[in-house]
Amino acid sequence: MELLLQTVIDGLLMGGLIIIIGVGFSLCFGVMHIVDFAVGEWVMLGAYAGYMMVRHFGHDAMFYLPVIFVIFSALGWVIYPVILQVVSGKRFNPAIMGLIFTFGLSITMKGGALTVWGYHIQSVPTWLTGKTLYLGPLTIPGLRVSGFFFGILVTLLLLAFLYKSRYGNVIRATAMDRDTANLLGADVRKVGAFVYSLYAGITAMSGALIGALFSVHSVMGAKYTMLAFFVVVLAGMGYVPGVIPAAIILGLLQSFVSVYIGGRFNLAALFLVMYGVLLITPKGIFRRGW
Amino acid sequence: MAWKLTVFILLLVICFIFPWIVSPLWLRIGTEVVMWAGLAQSFNIICGYTGRLDFGHGAFFGIGAYVTGMAMTLLGWPFGLGLLVSGIVSALLALAIGYPTLRLRGAYFAIATWAMGELIRQIATILDITGGAFGLQLPAVLNLPYFYYMMLLVTGLTYLTTYLLVEKARFGYKLLAIREDEDAAEMVGVNTASTKNWAFALSAFFPGVLGGIYAYWVTFIHPDSVLGGQITDVMCVMAFLGGIGSLWGPFLGAIVVQLIQRVLWVVWGEGTFYLVIIGVTICAVILFIPNGLVGLLEGTGLFSPKESVNELKKKIKW
Amino acid sequence: MKKLTIFALITFVIFVVGYAQAQEKRDFFKIGVVTSLSGELAFGGSVTKRGYDMWEDAINSAGGIDIGGKKYKVKLVYADDQSTPATAAVGGERLITQEKVDCILGPYASGTTLALAPICEKYKMPHITGSAESPLIWLRKFKYTFGTIPPVNLGPRSAIQTLARDVTPKPQTIAILGIDDAFSKFAAEAEKAEAEKQGIKVVKYEIVPEGSDYTPSVTAIKPLNPDIFAMGNHEKAAIEMIKIAKELKFNPKAYVQHYGMSTPDFRKGLEKDIEYVFGISYWTENMKIQSPGLFKNPKEFANAIRKKFNVEPDYTEAGCAAAGLAFQEALRKVNAPPPLTDAQKDALIDALEKLDIQTFYGRIKFATEGEFYHCNAGLESITLQYQGGKLTEVGPPKTRVAAPKYPTPTWDKR
Questions:
Q1: Rounded to two decimals, what is the model's pTM?
Q2: Residue C63 falls within a domain, yes or no?
Q3: Which of A85, A102, A106 to mutate against chain B (most B CBs within 10 Å)?
Q4: Fewest 10 Å CB contacts: which of B17, B72, B186, C377?
Q5: A:B CB pairs within 8 Å
């Protein structure tokens, strides 16, 4: 019984970390219909940013989260016009072109990280490392809990922004029908840039958190790209509220497979489920995806 | 016209006598180039001509490698038989996967095939019969020209088939119709489901066989080396760089990418910066010369580079 | 079309013409090295490079290899295998046919070694790897390939043996968590086999894919309360597993990890949590060995590495330098000046088989029969433990520096 509960907790917490990545990724797709293959690399770069800042300026890693958000948002703002160019109009199958372009971006980022930082594994210490909560027989690592709640918080803030604020309405309108929104006065290009930079900032920020939780490594990107895909496929591409339950399912799935079936089948189970969902309900389990 | 023909025949001749005029090192490199030319073309069939981005295509290569490897080591079958079975198994698998998956389009298809490719890699690592994480070893036969000719044969077949079936026959027209507007194609009577399936199976057959040859050539295969994402990545880069959707694009792309990699390797001995170059190259190709090198060299292509740069400048100004 | 043709022809001409070489006369030994200078194994490859470079440095400082009274210097020529078997094969081909090396020093990893070895067989090129540890290599019985490091399914035994024999109370149970890659899986299996042999009950044996989150696996192990928690891994996984153990407050009486005890990454990754962790090595600088050759004792080698590269030495560096030493001694016996003819290369193989020398690395004697054919399998591994932040030799009893500390205090009490 204890084991079951602990497995559930582990799963919840594992999923919690992925929520932020999924949210940004889903939003990006929902508004601009761009699948960013480099999502894992944004995470990796954010992790390295966190590491570098702690190393050069001291203080705790958590302190830098907002800073990283700002820096990478700016970076996203700058890259966006290029992506827009790729995805718009007259080319051979713009959707594929967009995919390949972000794929090229991910390779560049990965190669860049490898060249600059090599293959060493880095750790980012924070005051939360090693702090554990005890709930009866259950052990709950402090860092993961914070990651979980942070993820929920960011998601709720984002949802509040999207559904309650004026600009949020504009964004959602653009997501629903780009041309009409344009006709009605929304500057769709600015909306796109805004969303993309938001996505880049959020994802990098979560990377810093993940770097503190696990470790920082140049090739860690691939794993998070995979997890982001999984979450977004399950939630429905573009359906942001679906990300929270989807991430939790991801965490629980991994946890239960590892404990009760065997760690070897961990990743295989993930891919199997992802593939299955795409075949059966490509719009996600809530059928609200794009 | 006569000019084109002479050049073509000259190149063919060079291909045939290649093993006898270069050192074993360059023969190895040449064999690699030929193999990749075939792989890139197979990717081109499903992506360039049919318009579906298959991000798990490398899995067919790995499956071919493992089928031949297991056939030869576990069942003791001869090489040729192993190859044939590899190709057929890959094609059948493609049909099986394709049937449900080809309903998806665009990004969904890409992600689904990517997930399937990774799943196959995980299965190969988990199972013991494939050697699992230890990999599979094949008996060593070191006759380099033999492997070169095998690769050449299969790659040649790939190009010939593509030329006959896709460029020249109605099958190709159907594929293009599906690529450009699948619903419209369906409406004018093209059986899109069946056509797509056959294209997919065709695109899987050749990597399967090439994978089998590869296994016997390198003598050691492992889920990470033959089923890893990097196989698909490289195929993809070569096809796009050379010119997606064209007959000779993949061949050109294979030569350029593989040679750059090998030359950089000899000159610099460095590998990670090569990734940056590749990444930037893909981005540049997509941005400025989406029709690849073939488009550039033939002076055709939707955009001339200059136009692309101007458009980009406009976008940035906002 | 015309542009295309010209492009194709020019490319072709450039790369086909141009590498004709006559057989050179040279007065130095040209030794090829195939190792991972890039790709995911680059980290390990750089360790081997340091070992090989260290030997090259030392032998050249001493004037070179002594052949019949005259000394010949050594020049290493590197080929990067990019961490893939196919490139290792091409690299080998290039070194042998293009660079025309006298012999080859081998790769970091086993996969690349397995692809390189048949090439060396074909060209009858003597090849020693200072690092690859897979027993699968030796099962193939390659005539031209040798290895200075014992296979990975022998090494982990010593840690288990030390825990079984030299601590009280004797551990009763063990849980093993291994990574699903060739090296780590062998290590995990070796730990399991040895535990069973020593009468320790294996309560859980789990293999997980690299890169997954190990939390659920540790969660499953914790309630079983094993005395020993053993890992089959490289240091990256060990860092994460131990961190997770700390977070989940999992307190086995001993942690055993396999590879990377002395790497700076491991130390940085765990910092104070590294205390009490057991591991193994085939060589440490504190070993009491005296050798007549280059580097009189382990400390001398360790200091030389520190001085030249500013890193802490590891057994892989030692194994690689030892491979160089093996070639050096064998070449001396063959007594042939460079460049070596094919007959001389065969004589070199003969000399390597007969080799039995004591070096700073320990004894080098390649097996000439059995499942570890041509491997230096006789080398015993040493059990290490981090005590007071220092890597300390705690086993086997005859050569240890300190007693193993057991049981490990719980996380709260540290």
A1: 0.85
A2: yes
A3: A85
A4: B17
A5: 142
Nearest to B271 among C80, C119, C140 (CB): C80
**Alpha helix stretches (DSSP H) within chain B:** 2-21, 24-44, 58-73, 79-101, 106-126, 144-161, 170-180, 182-187, 192-218, 223-226, 229-242, 249-268, 272-288, 292-298, 305-317
| Reported ipTM | 0.84
What CATH code is carried by the domain that includes residue A56? 1.10.3470
User: Residues 172 to 201 of C: which have CB under 8 A from any B CB?
Assistant: 180-182, 185-186
Residue numbers of the domain that contains A40: 2-280
Q: Indicate the number of domains in chain A.
A: 1
**Same domain for C255 and C402?**
yes
* pLDDT per position as a tens digit, C381-407: 889 999 888 888 888 888 888 888 888
Parent domain of C231: 157-281+381-413
Burial class (CB in 10 A: 0-12, 13-18, 19+), C26: middle
In order of their start, the domains of chain B are 24-317 (1.10.3470)
pLDDT tens-digit map of C195-216:
999 999 999 999 888 777 888 8
What length does chain C have?
Answer: 414
- The H or E element containing residue A2 is helix A2-32
Could you say which of C37, C85, C97 has the minimum Cβ distance to residue B269?
Answer: C37
CATH number, position C163:
3.40.50.2300
Q: DSSP assignment of B34-97, as one string?
A: HHHHHHHHHHHIIIIIT----TTTHHHHHHHHHHHHHHHHTS---HHHHHHHHHHHHHHHHHHH
The most confident of the ranges A22-26, A132-136, B143-147, B293-297 is A22-26
Question: What is the b/e burial string over B70-81, where b = at least 16 CB atoms within 10 angstroms of the residue's CB?
Answer: bbbbeeebebee
d(CA B178, CA B166): 13
Do both C70 and C139 map to the same domain? Answer: yes
C1 within a domain of the structure (yes/no): no
Let me know if residue C247 belongs to a domain. yes
Residue C17 inside a domain? The answer is: no
